[in-house]
Amino acid sequence: MTTTAQTATAANVQESVPFLGVTHMESSLRFYVDALGFEITNKWIVDGRIRWCWLKLGGASLMLQEFDKNRVPSGKLGEGVSVCFQCKDALAIYHQAKQRGLEVRRPFVGNGMWETHLLDPDGYKIGFYSPTDAPEETEYME
């Protein structure tokens, strides 16, 4: 590929959006929208139920689609998949998640960032990260 073609392609790409298959859309929407504060910006409705949606939180996006009952994967869903959100204040996300009754991992410092993690209803690891000057491996104390 020529440099001109590479530059044109790079300029054309705007965003990477994780697309997660879910087993129960209502549970996923309670987690992402009600508990974490994502907003539904687009959706596909079939028989009065949301089957696919585009979610947004700040400048980040995520897509969810409920598996057709006959096409649910046989393996453990979510295993080995992490979605990482860079944010201004991961500690604020941690406090919000705890306040809303979610099971959230106590923040710690790794690679120069505070990080905290949750598992969504299908087992996807959802992480929130923010820069810090705190020493590596520092664990957040309330």
Residues in helices, as a percent range: 10-25%
Name the CATH superfamily classification: 2,3-Dihydroxybiphenyl 1,2-Dioxygenase, domain 1
**What about the largest sheet?**
4 strands, mixed
Q: Widest sheet: strand order?
A: 1-4-3-2
What is the radius of gyration? 17 Å
Please give the alpha-carbon distance between the first and last residues.
Answer: 53 Å
Label the CATH architecture. Answer: Roll
Mean pLDDT: 92
How many individual domains?
1
Large-scale geometry:
globular
Summarize the helix and strand pattern as letters: HEHEEEEHEEE
Number of helices: 3
Can you tell me about this structure?
- The chain is an alpha/beta fold and 142 residues long.
- It has a single domain, classed as 2,3-Dihydroxybiphenyl 1,2-Dioxygenase, domain 1 (Roll).
- The protein is built from three helices and eight strands, in the order αβαββββαβββ.
- It has helices at residues 3-12, 25-35, 90-99; strands at residues 19-22, 39-46, 49-57, 60-66, 82-86, 108-110, 113-119, 125-131.
- The chain has a four-stranded mixed sheet, covered by helices on one side.
- A hairpin with a 2-residue loop joins β2 and β3 (49-57).
- The termini are far apart.
- The model has no long low-confidence stretch (mean pLDDT 92).
Features:
142 residues, alpha/beta, 2,3-Dihydroxybiphenyl 1,2-Dioxygenase, domain 1, 4-stranded mixed sheet
